Amino acid sequence: QDNSFEQFIINYCNEKLQQIFIELTLKEEQEEYIREGIEWTHIEYFNNAIICDLIENNQTGILAMLDEECLRPGTVTDDTFLEKLNQVCATHQHFESRLSKSSRFLNDTSLPHSCFRIQHYAGKVMYQVEGFVDKNNDLLYRDLSQAMWKANHSLIKALFPEGNPAKINLKRPPTAGSQFKASVATLMKNLQTKNPNYIRCIKPNDKKAAHIFNEALVCHQIRYLGLLENVRVRRAGYAFRQLYEPCLERYKMLCKQTWPHWRGPARAGVEVLFNELGIPEEEFSFGRSKIFIRNPRTLFKLEDLRKQRLEDLATLIEKIYRGWKCRTRFLLMKKCQIVIASWYRRHA
User: SMART domains, per this entry (predicted)?
Assistant: First the structure.
């Protein structure tokens, strides 16, 4: 119920993770259908980029306003920070404050004077401004760092590298908010180069007890996690997509015309393959570079047919090998018999 600077930066990280989830699952998937020329009706979803911008914008973001308050001369307090937020973010649709110039919130008695509220993707969260400035400064006096660096204990010395007299930096150390923002940016850059898998955990109740499911709580989490939009996109879209070349390479043994070698474009080979297998036209679509399969059952059917075909091919290879081995042994025995008979006749 009481949220301060720590919870604020944690929720900021959650917003960034939700943003990359949206981009990689909802936005990217729908854009892929358009790029591939697949007929598609756009499904609306909430993009939380506007909330991320409210927090991290370099000019008008909350973190930028907090750093500006921490670095400016004069009397700086948590209240002056809140006043600045009221001036800069007053008209933002996801920011609420009791002192905001927006008359919509002047009569909101549930919001104390020393707090502001952000409407996150997961719901509204109220933050106490008390301690924001001090926690963001996170200052460690230089002489304390130097004293720790001179300690004989190697671990303590390693924890305070900034105390090394040879590396004295007269610049003001970065604030906690800017350090966290840089760390989140590095994390997002790293995630975008990977192929992440998402595991969404649903909290069934607030009592941390087994076999209790609070339906309202579960439905609330499903809504704000964006799972409903994700399910709509998945149900309306295609469960599986693959480039034509690897698709043909994997399933070409299921058709006599494409096995063992297909001479021609990979897309034409996939068309011949699917027509030969009698897969209904509504179960797949041809994109510019990929084949799209709508129902997982179709993919499972292909995999089952491939598994059976591989077993048949293994049996065929085994049969040919055994035949070759027996014939080779027979020819060797026949040759030996002829040699023995010729020597016997010579000496008979």
Answer: MYSc
Q: What are phi and psi of 64, to 5 degrees?
A: -65, -40
Check residue 22 and give left, alpha or beta (phi > 0: left; psi -120 to 50: alpha): alpha
Domain co-membership, 270 together with 125:
no
pLDDT tens for each residue of 131-178? 888 888 876 666 777 788 888 888 888 887 777 777 666 566 778 888
Which structural domain range is residue 12 located in?
5-138+174-193
Using CA atoms, how far apart are residues 26 and 44, in angstroms rounded to an integer?
9
Residue 133 parent element (H or E): helix 132-137
Where are any strands of DSSP class E within the chain?
Answer: 95-97, 115-120, 123-128, 240-243, 284-286, 290-293
Amino acid at 11: N
pLDDT at residue 83 greater than cutoff 60: yes
Render 231-284 in DSSP notation, one character per residue. HHHHHHS-SEEEEHHHHHHHHGGG-TTTSS---S-HHHHHHHHHHHHT--GGGE
pLDDT of the residue at 103: 42
